[in-house]
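S1.2 Input.
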Amino acid sequence: MEAHQDCVLVGSWAQIMEVDRLVERFHRHPVDESTLRYQLLFNNPFVHSSVLLRRSALQQVGGYTTDPARQPPEDYELWSRLSRMGSVANVGQVLLVYREIPGSMSRVGPSPFRSRLITICAENIAAAAGLPSDDPSVQAIAALTHGDASSLQPPPDFARMQEILLQAIDSLASGEALTPLRQDALARVQAMKGAWMVRASPAYELLHTAGPFRNLAKRVWRMARWLRGPQ
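S1.3 Output.
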C-alpha cells in the first residue's frame, strides 16, 4: 500500500479450513487488476479477512453500509464502492487460513443474501457500462449470474446483454488484457442463454431450484469456453 498510493484495497490468497480441518483447497483469486475488476462485476473476488483498506478512501465512501436492504453481503457492497475510487489488488501468496462453516448464510437455501447480491452485481455492471442499474438487460445479467430466472419477464434480450458486458469490459481493461475478458463474457452469455432454453423446456421441472439452474449455467459456460478454444 505504501508503494502503490493509488491502491485503496488489497487482499491475499488463503487456504481453506473446513470447520476444524485444514484441507488442500485454496482461495486463489486473480492478481491482475483487469481480471479482478471484471470478476468484481459479478461477485466478491477478495477474501474478506485478508483485506487491508486505505483509511482515507474508506472514510470517503462512508465505510460498511448499515442499510438493511444492502447487507449482507456488506463486504462485496463496500469493495464495489471502493473500486470506483482507486486501484484494487490481490497478493498472490497464501497469507491466511479461511474457515468455512457449512451452515453459513451464503451457502444454504433461499435467502435475502442472494437478492442483495443481485442488486450489487447489477449496480457494478451498470456503473462499468454507463447505464442505469434498473436497465432490464443489466438486471437480467445479474439475476441469471446468480441463478434467479423466476423474476425475468419477458425472455431476456441476450444480444443486448452481450453488448452491455462488452461495453463494461471496455471500461475495465485495454490492449491484450481485453481478449480473455471478452471471451469469458461471450461464453458467459451463451451459458445463460443455454440455461434459459432448458428452463423453457419440459425438463425444467427437474431443475426448478436456483442451485441446479446456476450449476447448469456454469457447466454450459465452461463448455462454451472450451469449444471456443484459444482465439
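S1.4 Remarks. The longest strand covers residues 87-100.
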